[in-house]
Every structure is written in structure tokens, then in C-alpha cells.
Amino acid sequence: TGINAECGGSSIDVTMRSGGAGRAGKTSARTMAIAGALLGCVGLTAFHIFARSPVPPQPAPRNMRRPIYGALDRTQPLWEEPTTDAPTANLKTLLQDEAKARSIVRDLKSHGVVMETDRNAQEAIGKLQGATRKLIMRKYGDHARVRPGGTVFEVEMTVRFPEAMPNVVDRGSTGTIRIQTAPISEMPHAVWLFLEMVADWKGGKFHRNAGHVLQAMVVGGHQGLSFQEYSHKFPHVKHTLGYAGRPGGPAFYISTIDNTRNHGPASQGSKTEADSCFAKVIEGFNVVARMHTSWGHKQHGFAVDESSGFLAKSEEFINIDLKML
Description:
Layout: E1 2-7, E2 10-15, H1 23-52, H2 91-110, H3 119-140, E3 145-147, E4 150-152, E5 154-160, H4 168-171, E6 174-181, H5 188-199, E7 204-209, E8 213-218, E9 240-243, E10 252-255, H6 260-263, E11 277-283, H7 285-294, E12 318-324
Antiparallel strand pairs: 1-2, 3-4, 5-6, 5-12, 6-11, 7-8, 7-12, 8-10, 9-10, 9-11
């Protein structure tokens, strides 16, 4: 007896031979043959289905997925994840994204929202900071320096002392101060405004020696802060730079003492606000000390309001030049 079955394009042929066995034996054998053929058919069909069906791709483990633009992406909340790489993204688009986010933050600030505690303000600030980090790296990434605390930038400040400065003949009429910004993981908004100011520097002068700070005015119509960005990881210790005013900027100052209590959170009559601290001196401490001790004091012949530290004569100001390194 022969049985043939077609299964998914393959043929199963079962041939059964019997001798003089009885009818019952023939029936049982035939049943077993048919069952075997059917089982073979099912097996072959399954083989064809699974052999021809592609295995769906599996997502990579979370820690193996491609970062957005290197290690800097670790500083951004997940909801800020960009769709394009910052170093190659269109600069115009990034500028528009930052401007839009900054406008929202400025609007909240102008309506009296407590930016340090309000949930909507904190979300808007986070989006602004995320957009600004990408913009900084796109426009100034060639100047970026990776340090243990994060990605920073360095600026050279050259100061030119007035003729009224004591010991000009012996100690010279100029000095150089090297400045390092706060990490952009902590202070992107404040750092961005400083880098923009340096890149388009039109001039500035130190015009105030208040004892605890050396304050500079800036010319050229540069932007100020949209809110008082502050990080407890970068406080107003001695030799740091902060923006004058609140929200603050573009005028800035160098702290000559630890001003964490004077200019940090909940200072100057506010329950929450702080001046924005955005950079620190890393070289030229002797120049800062000379400015602090010898310039802008009445006993050295300077015309100064001793109660505020503001100098009265522009020819006695210290001229400033800034250059990105």
C-alpha cells in the first residue's frame, strides 16, 4: 500500500508492504502510516515557515545606544534628547531653538514667577539649558576643553591700568588674567552669554572697587541674562566671576573675597535668588590683587565714592580686552 502527501512543496511517500496478515493488522498498519505522514507534513510546513521568516531585530541594550553628541549628552534630561547631532546641526536652527526657549523663560521671569521653585519655570529652564548646550558646542566647540568637572572654555583678559595707577613704572601698565568658565553642564545660559560677548568684544572697563568685588562695565549692547542661572557646584568663592544685577549682565565682577553669602541664594533681600556665577580666575592672581589693593583708593589719589566704590573719572578706569583661547 502506498501513501503520498504534499507538504509545503515537499513530498512524503510512505509505502507499506504486508504479507498474509489479517484485515485488522492491515487496517492498523495503514492508520499508523497515515498518521506518520501527517506528522511529517506538519514538521516540514513548520520548517518552511520559520526558515523563511526573518527574526525581528532586537533593540540594543540601553547603555549601548549611540549618544547624542558624546559625553556631554549625559548632562541632559531624557526629555531634552535632540534629534540631530549638535556638532553637525544647522546653526540657524539651533539659534532659533535657543531664542524660543529663552523667550519663554524671560516671559515667566517678567511675570514675577519664582524661577527657583516653580515647576513650570524649572521645566522651561531645563529646555533652555539643553538647547543652549547644543548651541555652544555647535558654535564654539573648537574652543572647548574637557576638564574633570566638565566641558569649559578659557578666555584671556588683558587689563591696561590708568596713568594714575601707583608703581606703573616699576610694575608695568598692563596685566593678564586667565579665566575659565563654569562647566556648561551647570551654567550653559550664563556661559553662552559670556562667550558671545567675548566673540564680539567691543570694549569694557573696570570702574568700581567695592572692596568685596571689582566691577566692570561692558559696551556694545550685549545681551543680559533671562534669569539668574545658578549652581551650588559653582558658588561665589574668591576669584570667581559673577554677573552684576538681577537677572544680571552683561556687566560683571570679580569677587575679591568669598561672596557665597553676599551673592549666593537667598541674598540681597531675596528668599531664593542669587547672582549668576559663571567663571573663575585660574591665572593672574597677582594682577587681581594689584587691582584690589592699589587701584581705586582715595589714598592713592583716585576720585572715588568711598561708600560705593565707584570711580568718578573715566580716565581712571581700567581698560579691558577679552580674547577666547
